[in-house]
Amino acid sequence: MRCKIRFLPSGRSVEIEADEMTLLEATREVGLPIASACGDNGACARCGLEIIEGGASLPPETERERRIKQRNRIDPRQRLACRSRPVGDLIVRATYW
Asked: What is the model's pTM?
């Protein structure tokens, strides 16, 4: 199954196979810059994206992701792009685009 990821405010979008690519990889696929200082290991929390629509298309947050976000003072509405594999359509936003 394919899912469509739309990135705001750029308006760019990409279609990917469900559960085969992280949001971080999808972001890079459309050529948008995204921060990641930890080698995509979920430790730096710089790749936080706000989920605008379709949050149910992501697996639930793990305890590790919650701790990392809390430690780095990341908005609880955001998800770490490197730890999130969409299984359905999503609209996401980052303040740094």
From this structure: 0.89
